[in-house]
What does this fold into?
Amino acid sequence: MTRKHLCLLAAVTAVATAATTTATTQPLYVDIHLPVQGASFDAALSANTFLNNYLKNSEINFKTTHTPHVTLYLTAWTCGSGGPTPPPPSPSPTETCPEQIEDAVSGSMYDLYIPGMFGPCEIQVSKPFAAGNYAMMNVTLDTAGCLQRYSDLIVNATFKLSEPNQTAPGWVNSLPEPERSEKIHDIQKYGSPNVFSQFQPHVTVAWSDNATAVSEAVAALSVPKTQFTGDIVALGSVGHHGTVLQNQDLAVFNVTVRKPCAKYLNYSDCRSHNVTAGGCSWCVMHFFFFLSFFVFLSLLFFFVVNFNLLEHCSHVSMLSFLSLSFSFSTSLSLYLSLPLSLSHLSSLKFVT
It folds into this structure.
């Protein structure tokens, strides 16, 4: 496990460097992550403070500069401008790359938490370990696959906006098969060696240029096993050593929040609430589904109360009229809602 995490961190730097030199547009680095919360945050902060004192540096500083986090997907992003991979359609032709990433993540929020069926994940954080120049706290992949599903959904929703055809770092060629081929494929397609079957969650708590000192510091560290609820997903600005910078998130989503659909009557209103809600497309789409249902009930009411029409219609005609009414109202709903949410088709379950 130690070797894999060390390789992962080396890949972040190498892949980012390759993307910078090959892309026609300067890539953006965004870490889609779960901020560590509660008792797990306290444990990470305590470990970071101890390790920084031991290593005599503050390269990673949870007190003032960085956010302890579990990365779900970290890569370089160009949103289609750095290569041939077409990005998903955007509701607005003037959207920036960060806004496109935000919209893509928004479209997956209602798959991360399905009341009574799935999520939010309970994240288990436990003993620290050394991985080369890094000290990390272990994050357990739960047997139910909740955390793995989080990462898979986020990657599937956003990877087309990443820098395409990123170059695999040299160390990948030294890995045994099939791990080598899997990582090369994942880097080329998704821009990260840490996705899907290669997903290896952790919390990075310290760094030093002296790997031996890191091992000694971790051996002297005692950290309790904790857990937190992964109900917050954030798009973090990336600093040195794979850190996430405090107070510089591009967007923050609460996957369990369900706001009234009536609040989102247009795309601008919808996006303005993304920093506190679990994504606007669900409410936009469902608002129009409620509208279609209202239209259907109105037509049905009109048909039933019109006794003269009712007396002269056969049962077949009545059923045909009801079917046409429902089809019309549903078509109206889709016609009105799809232009507002082209980048959120995943919320309709057409894309998984």
User: Anything to note?
Assistant: Strands lie at 28-35, 69-77, 121-131, 134-140, 202-207, 226-230, 232-237, 251-254.
